[in-house]
């Protein structure tokens, strides 16, 4: 996985609450058994004029310059709620998003972000709105910095806003870790657990269990 | 200090403490379906990894498959065949149990899993599907994950998880007639918001929950994710044990007593302390209906469309204004009586035998209003068979409903079947998001009984005031 340390980029304010993963990538845009080729379907219901068309809706923020080059999204509470589809994160990543700043996230979406090199930054609503106001005055000039090393968002007015991320999530993003490889270092403990547990809860281990 | 059911299940599944409140948890059961499971299995293959303990991994076909009679691997959804054949090939190669098309055990993942005794009290169960929290209704610790986490669970039989906070919600009082678990959870979400449970594992308790049959508890926990919760759970009790006994993958007679003895130790201790507690009085609750495009935008069927201007929070006000525009509604109009063009009964929320019985009870001797397209999709092929054995299919058909093969069907639009542009649909599903059931389709969430009553009326209807049977 690609590492994330710090990023200064154009931020796009999409300040709606409860933006769900169906909106981020509609089911109809998940056409193949693949993690790739999904960015075209990103926000398809809002980004294009009519269902199924690819004619851009000029009013949608990500269709406007310079937001077309945004790498950071600003949003309202509960961003990424709803369906577990990791396709939402794959689509955002392929389109270019590397951080989302919102007051809260859907839990599964948040977990999916850190496994794909996108930083889910939780900041309170007033701060997100303040960032959005600064960005809107001059999106190209007023860029936002997400510094994962210091866990700090630096606003265009140079104010720093600390944020928190679970330790394991931060390490995974900073180091670009493969979580399976990390866990398999504990394989002896997994096997020992299984041996103990088998005596305690034998019904869990179905007949063909080796 | 006493421990909650979450504390107990967490402790007994902890393989290793990873610091920062994070544990490596042992995962007892993994379930996959053809939409997100396919990509997880393929990802695992591509990385040269294998499924560890495939006998504890299960897979079904539900999201993409057609639900029309005579279905094959070809689907109305463009590209659907690829999902089905890829899943089948990967499942066979990995040696996992597949409930394929044509198998009686096929159906919606969260209907099949309790039906087959795969979900049990006290198990940890994950699936790359957000409604995995449904299985909390049996007292399982079950939660939805992404496909990458799915790969992790398949390859290691574990997941690293940060322990959520604990919340107990007590639903107290007797449910009024024609008010169901679906109404409880819709009411909760409309009152406390779609992120009201964010960061929490929620234990549903109280006299109303204890009185709910197991299938209704599954409905209640199903929409914990719509409340923003990590998961929901109901402590297992005698009703649960009776439900589980004898199911194909449940403990057999030689292990039954030991399992039940263990399950009896799981409920939260009387002196357990929760991070948050709520109590909801259910005794006066009306059947619920949503009016907007978030599950939190709901109210009683006897209420009017709220006025966004009365909303003090600016974000919620804008969201409500946008929702009313999408839904084609004006503030102040009564919800009951809004004309509908379609009615849908199905989904992992409300497609079990008890749901179909409640809807059939409303439909028997009545007929769907002219111009209304009404569809019933049983949650599994076994639910369909059981319903047919007691003649429910005939009740639905006689009333003017389509009677389908099992699957997720029109709970969401994947490029195949949909309800039309700006058509108003009353639906027993779980999400009323913009474009969820079709481009610009307007979805109103409700219980199966309310859906049936509305289908008859040709408009959103109060199931407590049914017309006479003919």
Describe this structure in words.
Chain A has 210 residues and is of the alpha/beta class. Chain A has helices at 21-24, 44-47, 87-95, 107-114, 125-137, 167-175, 179-184, 187-200, and strands at 6-9, 11-14, 72-75, 99-102, 119-122, 144-147, 152-154, 160-162. In chain A, the strands form 2 sheets. Chain A has a 4-stranded antiparallel sheet with strand order 1-6-7-8. Chain A has a 4-stranded parallel sheet with strand order 2-3-4-5. The radius of gyration of chain A is 20 Å and the shape is globular. The two termini of chain A are 33 Å apart. The model of chain A has no long low-confidence stretch (mean pLDDT 96). Chain B has 470 residues and is α/β, with parallel strands linked by helices. Chain B has helices at residues 5-13, 37-46, 80-94, 109-115, 147-156, 181-192, 207-210, 214-222, 238-244, 253-263, 314-327, 353-363, 381-389, 392-399, 448-457; strands at 14-19, 22-26, 29-33, 57-60, 97-99, 124-127, 141-144, 158-162, 165-172, 200-205, 231-233, 276-281, 288-290, 298-300, 342-345, 373-376, 401-403, 424-427, 442-445. In chain B, the strands form 5 sheets. A 5-stranded parallel sheet of chain B has the order 5-4-3-6-7, sandwiched between helices. In chain B, strand 1 and strand 2 form a beta hairpin. Chain B starts with a helix and ends in a 13-residue tail after the last helix. Chains A and B meet through helix 4, helix 7 and helix 8 of A and strand 1, strand 2, helix 2, helix 3 and helix 5 of B.
